[in-house]
Amino acid sequence: MDAPVKLMPQRDPFRILVSAVLSTRTQDPVTAAASARLFRRASDPNALARLTPAEIRKLIFPVGFYRTKAKLLPRLARMLVEHWRGRAPRTMAELLDLPGVGRKVANIVLSQGFGLPAIAVDTHVQRISNRLGLVRTSRPVDTERALMKILPRRCWKDWNRLLVALGQTVCRPQRPRCPACPVNRLCPKRGVPPGENSE
Fold this sequence. Notes:
The protein is mostly helical. The protein is 55% helix and 0% strand. The relative contact order is 0.12.
């Protein structure tokens, strides 16, 4: 079963950055479709900076908070052009200076765009890392820090994509498909009510 996360752009830091901003509070299939429409009109920061918020709104609807994102994306693109010669920056501090970018988005760009060791914590990583008993945390920033202490550094950049794929197909929020899970025997299923896991 293919996970929707596979639809997301890979390798191009600029496209990963924009798609990650669009993905906030939005499911991956919706994000992938909106990103594709946007990149057909604006394949680089210069082109994105020239689009109006109204044009962007039409292209990215129905992503979550599309009106807000339509306003901040041209600003983000202009900052890339003015400060980083049209490229996505490759440090956490620089990425966090961009509008619409928090730690999750920055870590996605660092890990997926540049192949650097970084752990992006989204809802899947938060839920599954706790279910597996690896952490006991409720805030993403605490989960990120806890995982950095226990996971080998070489695994950081792949942790998000692996757990997102698992969370979209098997380790779902409700009625997880535990019998189909590759780590079923090792998982303490923390937080999963008895009898709720299903085939």
